[in-house]
Amino acid sequence: MSRVREAAGNGRMIRPLSGGEPLRLEPLKLGERIRDIRRRHSWTLEEASRRTGLARSTLSKIENEQMSPTFEVVQKLAAGLEIELPQLFEATAAGGATGRRTITRQGEGRPRVTATYEHELLSVELAQRKMVPFKTRVRARSFDSFSDWVRHSGEEFLYVLEGRIAFYTEFYEPVVLAAGDSVYYDSDMGHACVSVSDDDALILWVSTA
Amino acid sequence: MSRVREAAGNGRMIRPLSGGEPLRLEPLKLGERIRDIRRRHSWTLEEASRRTGLARSTLSKIENEQMSPTFEVVQKLAAGLEIELPQLFEATAAGGATGRRTITRQGEGRPRVTATYEHELLSVELAQRKMVPFKTRVRARSFDSFSDWVRHSGEEFLYVLEGRIAFYTEFYEPVVLAAGDSVYYDSDMGHACVSVSDDDALILWVSTA
DNA sequence: GGAGTATGTTTCCTATCGGAAATTCATCCG
DNA sequence: CGGATGAATTTCCGATAGGAAACATACTCC
């Protein structure tokens, strides 16, 4: 049975950061950090060894702060343990680390209708999120129904779910996007889109908060 | 005519991404990086030596990739050169190419296949973006094919495009998501998903960078 | 030109890293 | 208990990181 099923399905959940170890990542206990990552994945030194290509003994010594790995080795560690290098050194505000999660079912977002768009804000329950996702219905042949750019600081990702839209931005030629196409852009650059299909177009938008 | 059409239609364009370079995924040239930082401050090896407490020769060898510094030394480097550790390892926008918009056509992202997922990274041409979008194919009935949580700092938004998946996270009960459903969660909380439909499931993922 | 100065590179040589194997520690059995 | 199995730790030793000092290569200024 897969470990996830075990962990997620039955009662035996991997507890957050159980009382035992606080997992605080003080100014750079690389050893602890490595060990923690390994433990979280329930990897033995042997498994970690296979993954990283490093000797068990080496890993053991690193975890116990008995040696300072060379940069080369650090890279192997990051790769093998499937963690991004910068992440390895980030001072995570660990502590309680209470994960958050919110589900939004099809059609159950918070609607916000404007002249041009029919937005449906997703994941509204979650305050203080770094991204703002919403689904938007662009009315069919809305070509002439609006008059100005939308512009707001941040970045935006747009993915076309259904239909075809013409996507306009300042400085660029307009482009037609069909279902499955996507675009990423700085949203302080004026932008707008219109449906060019016979039906409404449906797009998924994610903005930085 | 709408102002958008006007504005977008005329010829004045900022050049997008320099078409030439494919944005190489560098193996992280630490030496070059260090040398850049030092040069930028107009520090001599001697000065850098005083700042870091490392020998001139050592610095020289590191910059010329003639040796792999130990982690201890890397720490001293970061401290002495007044740069945050994670920053040292962040993938730089190599070419400097600050594109402000990038289109990714259906199926034309950069594939990344793992045992469990078939990712397609979107908008890869755009370096230094705050979000990382990708589309993922989750193999049908992949229920037993993986064994561990995915976990990385940041937040994540998931939208189901096709099929049905079971979405697992630590601390929560697993939940089944169908096309059109979405979830927003802290991605440092272990998470994973499997397809529970007869066909592969297709999901759109956006992570904070 | 030659002496002097400032910067980066290349020797050494020792301390230590990193891997193979031996050793310890823990947990199951019979 | 003794043996067996699987994990982590600790030797041991060759390879290499890192420092001191010598060397190389500019630039000055006289």
Draw up the topology in text.
2 copies of one chain form a homodimer.
Chain A: H1 3-9, H2 30-40, H3 45-52, H4 56-63, H5 71-80, H6 85-89, E1 101-104, E2 110-113, E3 117-121, E4 131-138, E5 155-162, E6 164-169, E7 175-178, E8 182-186, E9 191-195, E10 201-208
Antiparallel strand pairs in A: 2-3, 3-4, 4-10, 5-8, 5-10, 6-7, 6-9
Helix pairs in contact in A: 3-5
The structure holds a DNA duplex (30 and 30 nucleotides).
Structure description:
- Two copies of one chain form a homodimer.
- The first copy, chain A, has 209 residues and is an alpha+beta fold.
- Chain A has helices at 3-9, 30-40, 45-52, 56-63, 71-80, 85-89, and strands at 101-104, 110-113, 117-121, 131-138, 155-162, 164-169, 175-178, 182-186, 191-195, 201-208.
- Chain A has two domains: 3-89, lambda repressor-like DNA-binding domains (434 Repressor (Amino-terminal Domain)); 110-208, Jelly Rolls.
- Helices cover 23% and strands 27% of the residues of chain A.
- The first copy, chain A, has a six-stranded antiparallel sheet with strand order 2-3-4-10-5-8, with no helix packed on it. A three-stranded antiparallel sheet of chain A has the order 7-6-9, with no helix packed on it.
- In chain A, helix 3 crosses helix 5 (71-80).
- The longest helix of chain A has 11 residues, at 30-40.
- Chain A starts with a helix and ends with a strand.
- Chains A and B meet through helix 1, helix 5, helix 6, strand 1 and strand 5 of A and helix 1, helix 5, helix 6, strand 1 and strand 5 of B.
- Chain B binds a DNA duplex (30 and 30 nucleotides) through helix 4.
